[in-house]
Write a structure and sequence with these properties.
The protein is an alpha/beta fold. It has a five-stranded mixed beta sheet, with helices on both faces. The radius of gyration is 15 Å and the shape is globular.
Length: about 170
């Protein structure tokens, strides 16, 4: 099972494609990184770049499912709107390719990887390096994206946000 996992953000969107062979415990990171958009770039340009870069990843790795971090609570409505737009730009490529999309709360992701929902970014990155036997610690945004994918692999019942259908564990 190949999973595209995404930690959306307007200026930095973490992404990863992880794979677990059926009947195996070993999980491999096929690719991971961060889609970066310049601070001065228009929001519309950032959204197009996120979509285009994720389309490229999807075409190259052909993931079967997509996991994305759900919206976090923010007090500023402008931030919420911007985050929602970045999240949509990240989800659209997967949905356009017919890939089921699942979402996970930040606390649930951290709990799945570190064991506690209030883990710091450094703890998540360290655990990702350890769990996947990586040679280097991924950047925080890439580590968060990998963590989203691991939470998806560890999840029980899931709901595809694009269709509303419930599915069982992988």
């Amino acid at each position: 099972m190949k999973i595209l996992s995404i930690d959306p953000g307007l200026r930095k969107t973490g992404f990863a494609v992880i794979e677990r062979e059926e009947g195996q415990d070993l999980i491999k990171a096929l690719t991971f990184g961060v889609i970066r958009n310049p601070q001065k770039a228009l929001q519309s340009s950032c959204l197009v770049n996120i979509r285009n870069e994720l389309n490229t990843v999807i075409r190259k790795y052909e993931p079967e499912e997509c996991a994305v971090e759900s919206v976090i609570y923010v007090q500023n409505y402008k931030t919420a709107i911007t985050m929602g737009a970045a999240r949509a730009a990240a989800i659209i490529p997967a949905a356009s390719h017919g890939i089921p999309v699942y979402e996970y709360a930040p606390k649930r992701i951290k709990q799945a990887v570190v064991g506690k929902g209030a883990a710091k970014k450094e703890q998540v990155a360290f655990m990702i390096r350890s769990l996947l036997s990586l040679k280097e610690t991924p950047t925080p945004d890439a580590a968060d994206a990998i963590a989203v994918g691991l939470a998806h692999l560890y999840a029980g019942e899931r709901i595809d946000i694009s269709s509303g259908k419930k599915t069982g564990p992988i």
